[in-house]
Amino acid sequence: MPSIFTTTLAALAVAPFVTGHSWVEQLRNVNSKGTYVGDYGYPRGYVGKSDPGFTGDSMNWLLPVAPKVFIDETSPLCHTAQTTQKQSSEKYPRLKAVAGGFVAMRYSENGHVTLVDPKTGEGKPEKGGTVFVYGTTEPKEDEKLMDVLRWTKNGTSRGTLLATNNFDDERCYEINATPISKERQAAFPNYAMGQATDGGAGGFPLMCDTNVQIPTTAPSGKPYTLYWVWQWNTAKGTEGQPTGKDQYYTTCIDVDVTSADQALSASAESKYALGQQDAMSEAVKDFNSRTAIITNPVQGEVGPIFGSGNSSSKPSATPTAPALSQITNIPTMTSSPEPSSGAGDAVTVTDIVYVTVTAGASSMPVATASAPASGFVTSAKPSASGAPSAPAAGVSSAATPAVPSAAPSAGVSSGAIPAVPSAAPTGMTTSAAASASAPASAPTQAPAGSGALGGFTMPKPSGAAAAKRAIKIRGMAWN
After folding, report:
1. Does the N terminus or the C terminus of the chain have fewer Cβ atoms within 10 A?
2. What are phi and psi of 57, to 5 degrees?
């Protein structure tokens, strides 16, 4: 009959797991027979899932850092708790490894194997993507992902590409009702450490392995650094991600290179087990000959960092003003104004524009105008009686120039007249500097596609009042 201790462990094992992402949780030496031997080892700054204060961000490190979509030269390789060669506590020591020996880097699949379906797997690589393992004797505290991804198997750089494995090792699973989980539970039963076995499925999740061989040249008596880099990018053309998206997850690790007598001893004390330690004692069968569908990170990269892919690796942080020569939506009248038949009274539509004057060969300068993103100011000459009349419907009266909004609208360069705030109907206001006699007919909504700024045009005035157009340019008026 299982003890309360083992029953509790089994219950913890099937509790909801940390979904979504993965990181190296434990390291084991693998002997020539494919058996886990020696003591347990852990990454830098390790925090166990059962430790107080653990959150998904305690170990998870996703690149690029938001809001970037693609990795670039600045992407930091290591989690902020893993930039230096330090362990988090005595209960999570470095693995003692052997030069030339194989190591299993163990991690939970967290649904990336057993919960993938056509929808969740859309645009994702086969077998859960690729894990690249790099090694170096010269780690940097500010290590950059791109520097490491350029390391190759020949080791001519500061580090070496040691291994490429599919994320899915063909046996790992979480406990769930999917066919693949049930099949693997039956084929590779796993149990909690100390749990009684009866030959059936143990009901304990089985972590995946990434297998890597420590270089025979790794110096003894010194730490050797391993970088676990999981590439799980989304391909271009995927629904919701038309340009694709990078997703890299990393774990930074040091192992102490020592003798086989110390590292591989079957009698090594296993006192550093996890709080939810499993009893699996065998590595995957092909631990010493594994490869991957993708063997070069360039093959799986969807951004522009390697000189192909998308044209930009990061969205523009600040809207860019369009070129002045491209501005064509200067407000226009719906029809030509009729000649004045009265005492010269006129309705004036004043367009506030931002201009660039370029001196040319002729005596007349060339002016290129751009309009504010929304709103314009309507002014009028006094009526014949000299008494101001109420503004036309839909036009508000203001004693001051249009008040700028909190920030310029996209496409407006600094120095351009800001848009009128939304408090004024469609950005229109009447200047009180010249008390206005408005036309009998109010401005009307422009039809779709109208070139009128702010969506309004000025109708033809009736009676004696004739309309004229004035464009004010830095204190000058061209009629």
Report:
1. N
2. -85, -5
